[in-house]
């Protein structure tokens, strides 16, 4: 397949016109969409997709625009992979374990030469090990990173770990007993990056190029920061949540192991195949069989070494998502059938779209997990329902977090956070709104006695519930439902 082919030059893929939302509304017909429809719906300029079937990359194509000047996304377009960088970095660390340079279970302080992790009581008695770093169970802080605008000073790894200027994130510190619980920590992967460099006496980007990227056939992937010119010719421009391109095209991530990988959907698909081949013990695979299966073994919670694993009892799957500023990536593989997909977008609002594409691919290729949509009843959005919910709300436990429910001239209701795209809302009852795109629900709990306007509601979303209160003058009082 030509590296310059676009979706319009390839045979039509069935999945491209059969996207499914998170929630299907009863009585509303088939509810299938084209990728182009949903890109417009979410404000996503460009998408790249690679599909794996039977341990082969069988379909690679691009949709939409990679850059504001209209350059199309093609199979060779590179995107920032964000936290999918952690999976690839984990394999690099495991390669060092295989050759005896590192150990999974010794305290990392034995290999660090230029920096020492502060060990406050009572957390400092247990070892911070590579196994715990890769499985997010080392007790370290700093979940994610903001990136740095092109042209601004970049911090060293030690400055990032200490939160010292010009670093723009907090110090990476030990705040829980190592090994006791899972807590996502990009900071742990910064420490892993420093550990790998100091143990191997090699820069992280060169180590990863020679030990992982090239052996895996990921020839369009790099941990090197892209600059202007020929080096960045095929790089997609990131898009902020308000729809504007990132100034300069993208942000830089010196936290390379945590967030610094540039890649393509096809390269990450090939990487997933290499991990399956490793799990099967095939000759010439990227990792030894025992190493790969240890990577895919549950360490803490749902996590292996650098990868998220499917729930107990579900079809086996390993996956990760990426969310650097201006980009979103969904990467997943089913090892037993060697099926999967990588979907990369150049927009902050691209993750919901990526899951819709994945559902369509699951339908076309018969994945072990069919990724079923939820079903919900719906009622017409009447003036009464709209008047009841329209307004501005703040989260009770996070008062600075506000959102709005708005009604538009065509009668449609939307939900939005400040600076982010709007989400269409449907009514599932007189007292509940839902987002068919994300599955989020707004459930009325208290009302103003005089107007029956909602004053308190539950904001329900996959993974949690928050209480939100209407922002109103102090004399508005709540009461039971009408």
How would you explain this protein's 3D organization?
The protein is globular. With 482 residues, the chain is an alpha+beta fold. It has 11 helices and 20 strands. The N and C termini lie far apart (62 Å).
Low-confidence stretches: 1-8, 473-482
Portion in strands? 15-25%
Average pLDDT taken over every residue? 93
Q: What's the Cα radius of gyration?
A: 23 Å
Largest sheet: 8 strands, antiparallel, barrel
- How far is the N terminus from the C terminus? 62 Å
Global structural class: alpha+beta
Q: What's the shape?
A: globular
Instruction: Count the DSSP helices.
Output: 11
For the biggest β-sheet, the strand order reads 13-14-15-16-17-18-19-20
Name the descriptors.
482 residues; alpha+beta; eight-stranded antiparallel beta barrel; six-stranded antiparallel beta sheet; 22% helix
At a glance:
This protein is α+β, with helices and mostly antiparallel strands.
Secondary structure: elements and pairs:
Blueprint: E1 23-25, H1 35-42, E2 46-53, E3 56-64, E4 79-80, H2 84-98, H3 130-134, E5 148-149, H4 157-162, H5 186-200, H6 204-213, E6 251-252, H7 256-259, E7 262-263, H8 265-279, H9 289-295, E8 308-309, E9 318-322, E10 328-334, E11 339-345, H10 351-365, E12 374-376, H11 383-389, E13 391-395, E14 402-407, E15 413-417, E16 423-429, E17 432-434, E18 441-447, E19 454-461, E20 464-470
Parallel strand pairs: 1-12
Antiparallel strand pairs: 2-3, 2-11, 4-7, 5-6, 8-9, 9-10, 10-11, 13-14, 13-20, 14-15, 15-16, 16-17, 17-18, 18-19, 19-20
